Amino acid sequence: MKVIEHCYSLETKWIDVVAEAMGGTVDGNFIKGDNETYTGTHFVLVMEERISAMLIDVSYKETVLLKYKNDLKRFVGLYFYITNHNIDFILDKETAVVGKFDYNLTIIDSALETEYAVNKGTGTYVICIFMDKTALKEYMDKVPRLKTVSKDVFNAEKNTIISMGRMSTESSILLNDFRKLSYDSFLFELYFRGLVYNLIGDYLDQLLEKKIIIGKVIGDDVKSIIASKALLLKSIEGIFPGIEFLAEQVHMSPSKYKKLFTKITGFSPGTFFSDSKLEHAKELLETGQYTVSEVSDKLNYANISYFAKRFSSKYGIFPKEYQSQL
């Protein structure tokens, strides 16, 4: 597996780091590449003094391990993904696969070194937003509810900023609409700026709906929670395994496990499991190969009435009605 390292420091510019690591031709704020590793486009823009953003629109011709190392510990990365294949996220010195990319929005403190294993044939479209922690704190302080916790959120001795979840429907629409814009458009940079600020705003809106957990996190913690998420997804057709069992699998106390899982994913283990089960139920209904009763049985719901109630609560429509509209 080819290894590509991105090393960021005070002395480097984002565009130079990417061009050196990935190869390609720099043309203004664009890097256009077509080599043995990938084909595609990067676009890098300094939005303002403390905020930069990068678009990655590439297809990989070979399997690679992407490593990101930062001497800069002062920023937070917001990553919004669209990809045609799973990407293996790795947070460890070893190159072992620890979890599948079942999320498409990650928020990561630059103090954490990250790695991604990308398979040949994978196409990725990513908007990366790099914000100085002081800038993100100023945004949060404008929202009264977030201001009450922002001091602890950005206290490096108390907290590590890390979150892995799903982007909102609004963010997904913003990305898909922006993808229609040609790179040759004279409005490209203007619309890109608008996209980035809208994504930041939508992320802050999402924070209002989540419980913010203050706590330190090391790489092994993240690795364990990703592995636990993978275990839950493999168990999706059964019943919830229970906190005690899940904590034991990753060698944590139940209280630490539940706190870290909620901090990193934004959901408690039970909520993550039940929501994922409902998403899988929706996918099964969409295939047209199962009746509502069969889906209920396949996913081990207590009875069809309970399944219908949970489905309606999440999607605002009963499963039978939803299936009839497909």
From TrEMBL:
<dbReference type="InterPro" id="IPR018060">
    <property type="entry name" value="HTH_AraC"/>
</dbReference>
<dbReference type="GO" id="GO:0043565">
    <property type="term" value="F:sequence-specific DNA binding"/>
</dbReference>
<keyword id="KW-0238">DNA-binding</keyword>
<protein>
    <recommendedName>
        <fullName>HTH araC/xylS-type domain-containing protein</fullName>
    </recommendedName>
</protein>
<feature type="domain" description="HTH araC/xylS-type">
    <location>
        <begin position="243"/>
        <end position="325"/>
    </location>
</feature>
<dbReference type="Pfam" id="PF12833">
    <property type="entry name" value="HTH_18"/>
</dbReference>
<keyword id="KW-0805">Transcription regulation</keyword>
<keyword id="KW-0804">Transcription</keyword>
<dbReference type="InterPro" id="IPR009057">
    <property type="entry name" value="Homeodomain-like_sf"/>
</dbReference>
<dbReference type="GO" id="GO:0003700">
    <property type="term" value="F:DNA-binding transcription factor activity"/>
</dbReference>
